[in-house]
Every structure is written in structure tokens, then in C-alpha cells.
Write a structure and sequence with these properties.
This protein is α+β, with helices and mostly antiparallel strands. The chain has helices at about 80-95, 120-130, 180-195, 235-240, 250-260, 315-330, and strands at about 5-10, 15-25, 35-40, 50-60, 70-75, 100-115, 135-140, 145-150, 155, 160-170, 200-215, 215-225, 250, 270-275, 285, 290-295, 300-305. It is built from six helices and 17 strands. The chain has a 17-stranded antiparallel sheet that branches. A hairpin with a 2-residue loop joins β11 and β12 (about 215-225). α2 (about 120-130) packs across α6. It is globular, with a radius of gyration of 19 Å. The chain starts with a strand and ends with a helix.
């Protein structure tokens, strides 16, 4: 497989195509002084490593006014019984006080029946459908092939300094926020504030407020700041990832529950990716609304949702279905 990255930053009308060599990294500290496109899994392992795509060819193009037609038919299996069982086990931990919040993810396995078009056409279609999101199409022997459309910043450099966000709480109706959604947002915001305070100066918070991502709405709080002189960006990434928006609280206990009860590995879903010190850009996004291709006929879609004590099984399942629709709309 050739090693490639296509990415389009939110609200931009250009995209980048990178032909790369790929470097397996042992830790985030190896990003110090490095440049390229980084891709990290939810939890690194020998089979699912942290990698750095180092460009040998860089092409920059305008997103065409219209995407080429793409046709795909597929059969989908989404494992409702396994989700129900995992929800019950995690909800017990929430009710017992072992966890304050945990994110339950699910995978929908798909088999291609008919296909006309290629991955680049899918990427460009996603760019048209979701102009305000980060769109990534990436492939290598180390990572396999992934397409994602994500609204959530993990860490990015701005003209004024640095920025991250808490994005938690989901609704199909703007400004219709239940106590459950408001509490979920508060947990994530408080975690991020406490995590970054030792590393930053001039911290400014804005939110929570409603933001749109595809056909869904989320609660969002922005954090803008300067890094302290002795702090490196990769140190901040290490304390932020994984945030409670994709893992839970307390983080170690939530991670253990995810590894024990989720019925599938997440691989690169709910990790992060983005340009790192590349042409002046550092823009890392949480890898949400993902599909991963296993071979020419089989791929999987991933989505998840935050659980707290007030969560209900069917409501959470339906929320993850709506999130999967973000990718389904690209495939249709």
C-alpha cells in the first residue's frame, strides 16, 4: 500500500495531498522537533501504533466546486445485543459511583456489494457535505485506510496562541439541552481546565454554547491560551488525550471499563490526527465520525456517546446511530 494523507481543514477551500514515508513512534515525546502528519490511536499498541507521516511529495489543490458521482451499496451489521450488554455493565459502574462518566463506542461492520468510485472521491464528497469539519483520508501499511469527518479540536496553533475545546453533549435540536447533556459538558470542561492550567498562561474560556456539526448539535467550550516558556505542545497533547469526551472520568477507571466491556477495539477511532509543525500548521483533531477499511470489500464505521447515571440504553443507541449517519451520508 502507498502511504498517503489527504486533509482539508475546517472552513478552508483547499486540501492537501501528501505522499509519505511513515515512521512508527514509541511515544509522544518523539514529536519534539518533528514535522509531518501525526495519527494516534485511542490507545497505542504494537498492532495499532502512533505514527508520523513524513511527506516526500506535497500537493495543494482547491476543493472542486462539485464532487464526482460515487456509488456504494453495502450490507451492515451493528451488534445491538453487544451494545446493550456493555451499556448495562457500564451503567452499573456509574450507579455505584465507580465512574462519573464513560464513553461507550460501537462498531458497524460493513461488506461492499457494489462500488463505483474511489476513496479520493469519498474524501471530496465529505469536504462538500461537511465544510466546517476536518476531513481526513489516510492510508498506510501501519494504519490501514481511514476516512473521517470530525468537528473536535484536540490542540491547534492559532494566530494568537493555542486553542482546544470541550465538545460534549449531543442533540438534534439547537439549544435543547437536557441536564444530562449539560452535566456531560461540565465534566469535560472541568477536566480540560484542570489538565492544562499547569502548562499555560493567559487562559481564556468561552462557553458553553451550541455548535453545529453535520446534522447534529453539540455543546462547546473554547479554551485559548499561551504555552508557558518551558512547555512543549506534545506535553499538552499527552495530558489531554484521551479527554473525557472520548474516554471518561476518572480516566484510568474509564479506560479499564472500555477495554473490559466494549465488544471491539477502537483502533484509530477516538484517537487524534492532523498536521504537526507542517508548513506552519499544528492542527490536531480527535478522530471521530470514522470509517476504517480492512480490505477491498470490508470496512467498519465507528461512533460513540458519553454515559452518565442519567443515560438510557435506547437513547444512547439512537444517538450513536445519528453519529454513524455522518459517515453513511458520505457513502450514500
Amino acid at each position: 500500500m502507498s502511504n498517503f494523507v489527504y486533509f482539508r481543514l475546517p472552513d478552508d477551500n483547499v486540501y492537501y495531498k501528501l505522499i509519505c514515508t511513515v515512521l512508527r513512534l514509541g511515544s509522544l515525546s518523539e514529536l519534539n522537533g518533528a514535522s509531518g502528519f501525526v495519527m494516534a490511536p485511542f490507545k497505542a499498541s504494537p498492532d495499532c501504533p502512533l505514527v508520523l507521516f513524513q511527506p516526500t511529495v506535497v500537493l495543494k489543490s482547491e476543493v472542486p466546486a462539485e464532487s464526482e458521482p460515487y456509488e456504494l451499496q453495502w450490507h451492515e451489521a451493528s451488534y445491538r445485543a453487544g451494545y446493550r450488554q456493555a451499556f448495562a455493565q457500564m451503567h452499573y459502574m456509574l450507579n455505584s459511583g465507580t465512574l462519573e462518566k464513560v464513553v461507550l463506542a460501537k462498531r458497524a461492520d460493513c461488506r461492499v456489494i457494489f462500488q463505483k468510485g474511489d476513496g479520493v472521491q469519498l474524501f471530496l464528497k465529505a469536504c462538500h457535505l461537511y465544510p466546517h469539519q476536518m476531513i481526513v483520508y489516510v492510508g498506510s501499511d501501519l494504519t490501514n485506510t481511514w476516512l473521517m469527518s470530525t468537528p473536535e479540536v484536540l490542540l491547534e496553533r492559532t494566530a494568537e496562541g493555542w486553542h482546544t475545546m470541550a465538545l460534549a453533549g449531543t442533540s438534534t435540536v439547537p439549544d435543547d439541552w437536557s441536564m444530562k447533556n449539560q452535566r456531560e459538558q461540565l465534566l469535560v470542561s472541568e477536566f480540560i481546565q484542570l489538565a492544562i492550567e499547569p502548562y499555560v498562561d493567559d487562559l481564556r474560556m468561552n462557553g458553553p454554547y451550541t455548535t453545529e456539526a453535520g446534522s447534529l448539535y453539540h455543546l462547546r467550550t473554547d479554551f485559548d491560551f499561551q504555552l508557558k516558556p518551558n512547555c512543549r505542545p506534545e506535553q499538552l497533547v499527552e495530558v489531554l488525550h484521551p479527554t473525557p469526551a472520548v474516554c471518561g472520568l476518572p480516566r484510568d477507571e474509564a479506560m479499564a471499563a472500555i477495554e473490559t466491556y466494549e465488544n471491539t477495539p477502537r483502533y484509530y477511532y477516538s484517537g487524534f490526527c492532523g498536521p504537526w509543525n507542517f508548513q506552519g500548521m499544528t492542527n490536531l483533531f480527535v478522530s471521530l465520525r470514522c470509517m476504517g477499511k480492512r480490505n477491498e470489500r470490508d470496512f467498519s464505521m465507528f461512533a460513540g456517546g458519553g454515559l452518565i447515571k442519567e443515560s438510557r440504553d435506547m437513547e444512547e443507541w439512537e444517538e450513536t446511530e445519528r453519529k454513524l449517519d455522518i459517515i453513511r451520508n458520505v457513502l450514500r
